[in-house]
Amino acid sequence: MNQVPSPHGTSATGSLLMLFSAFNFAILDSLVKILEPSFRVWDIAFYRFGCGLLLLMAIFCWHGNPFQGHNPKLMIINGLISAMGFLALVTSIRLIPISTAMVLFYSFPAFAALFSTLIFKEKIKKVELLYIFVAFSGVMLLFEFHLEGSLFGQVMGLLAGISIGLSITFVRKLREKDGSVVIYLYYCLVGIILSLPVFLVKPRLPQLGTEWLILGGIVLSSVFAMLLMNMGFRYCKSWEGGLFLTSELVFTSFFGIFFLHELVTWRFLGGGLLILSSVIALNMSTARRPSAVSVVAGDR
After folding, report:
1. Are 256 and 97 in contact, with CB atoms under 8 Å apart?
2. Which of 67, 73, 199, 297 is the most exposed place for a label (fewest CB within 10 A)?
3. Contact indicator for 35, 44 with CB cutoff of 8 Å
4. CB atoms within 10 A of CB 29
5. pTM confidence score
């Protein structure tokens, strides 16, 4: 994907594409939440990665080797980290309120900023350190340290944020020579390799029409979200697109609160506000570094 930002900033087209991308990501999160508990995390991953790979190959890979890239080794490593992040996020969504899981997940821009400094020795400003501290403060505020299932779900949500933050750091390097489609194909391929053995031990096939519809929605919403995001970055800058993508958190939280009747606690409001404000601040800071890739624009 080559970015061709509008010379006058974010166009209406770019804004709408990013908002629709975020909305599709929110649909994906919500469908994962309402799918029957009998579907394991590995089952969801297998359908999402397998069908996603087939759809992408049907759309983009009419000829040649679709997996031809300049750094296959790093793509595999990145695919493994991203797939683990998806598994962790699905686990979190299934165990704790979806709104809380998404707020924890959206700590990933702070981790992306940290990993960029550690791996690529990118200089980080003092004010950006403050933003990262604010994000981590929000995470700590959200955590309720009780030895029960909710704690594991919270840990998985945070692990998803860490994994995607690290993945975005590697995507920065990969995007220097390769497009986002081939990176996403490797992500799906590694995801299939991870989930297939566990799926085959006790395969869970859809039985009801609603199960087919939900699984189909998970696949389609994830692919459409990625395609819309890539298209959106043709019309706006990375940091601008990143800001619009944060609306996923709002869409998903709205669904959880108003349709699943999840409780709005002071921890959720306080932690969510700290994390969301730090994400916005980090993206605004990225705008002052033209060579940087947005800390929010990651493939999922």
Report:
1. yes
2. 73
3. yes
4. 27
5. 0.83
> What is the domain extent for residue 253?
14-286
> pLDDT band at 210, cuts 50/70/90?
very high
Please tell me what DSSP assigns to residue 294.
P
Nearest to 67 by CA among 57, 54, 77: 57
Distance CA 90, CA 45 (A): 9
Q: Quote the tokens at residue 247.
A: 């609306």
Would you say how long the chain is, in residues?
Answer: 300
DSSP code, position 293: P
Question: pLDDT tens for residues 179-199?
Answer: 778 888 899 999 999 999 999
> Is 90 contained in some domain?
yes
Residue 298 belongs to a domain: no
The three-state secondary structure class of 202 is coil
Read off the DSSP letter of residue 208. Answer: S
Q: Which pLDDT score, from 0 to 100, does residue 144 have?
A: 64
- Read off φ and ψ for residue 30, nearest 5 degrees: -70, -40
